[in-house]
Design brief:
Length: 349
Amino acid sequence: MGLTAHVGLRLGTLDLDAELQASDAQTVAIVGPNGAGKSTLLRAIAGLSAIDRGLIQLDGDVLDNGKDIFVPPERRPVAMVFQDYLLFPHLSAIDNVAFGLRSRGTPRAKANARALELLERVGLAGKARAKPDQLSGGQAQRVALARALAIQPRLLLLDEPLAALDASTRVATRRDLARHLEGFHGVRLLVTHDPLDAAVLADRLVILEQGNITQTGTLDDISSHPRSDYAAELVDVNLLRGTAEGDRVTLTTGANIIVTQVGTGPAFVVIHPRSIALYRTPPTGSPRNIIAGRVDSSYRLGDRTRVRISGDIPLVAEITTTASDEMTLTPGAPIWAAVKATDITVFPA
């Protein structure tokens, strides 16, 4: 049946009011800027923070209604993997994994057998007697995951599970985590700042901003129709706002964009950075949108260069490093951006 949650609570300056649903065997990634309330949302669902209003329900059972029902964390079929893993430093890997079972009254032999089985599943049977300080970051993350799975939860919560890893470890651990999550048939909620983590690990994204959910959908959904500046930045597209009339969108700055989709009323305009061609002098040719501006900054990403352009229509363009080397992209230099109308997506605001 899955998770249904409406979490309303105030914590300091954060006023969290978020509603989400997640079904079995589905990984939902909660993404958003710092301070949006992502970890607070997970902690409320785990029972580590009581809600002020709303309803948290798992498989039809009410866990918290903000009034007279509050199931404490240890009685919820919920497990959480924390950003820093929080392994007990004085316990071995097998004892860390067995801890939840032992605290629920499972006999030591049975708990250890189950813990060893899970360590084998995550490829760490040979580290069963190792203490946390003898484990690498990736190994500690897998022990934390095994500990969470040991109690056979119906809901698995992961709060930035890869954030503590270095870049070289992160790639392999992300791949391993994706495989382990596929083998867990309950509900899975993942908090992350990394769009690549979300793309690889999640079936659906929930964007949380300033305590409110602003958009949900697959990565493709959000890439095609971002509804906030954060969402646009997350999926690396330019998002502009304006009013459509016919094949023209008048932006809030007063500038105009020519498009191929005819519409009327408030609209979002999406332009992919790679759809923008840059010139040091006004271009001629087929593009219907020639946008004058100035170079704000530029930086390289492998064999591509990202260029931020300031002006009436601020844009981020992405061109080849060969093309950028042929230009003088110093801050303040005049620049012209050309965009074909057929490369622009428009949808109602």
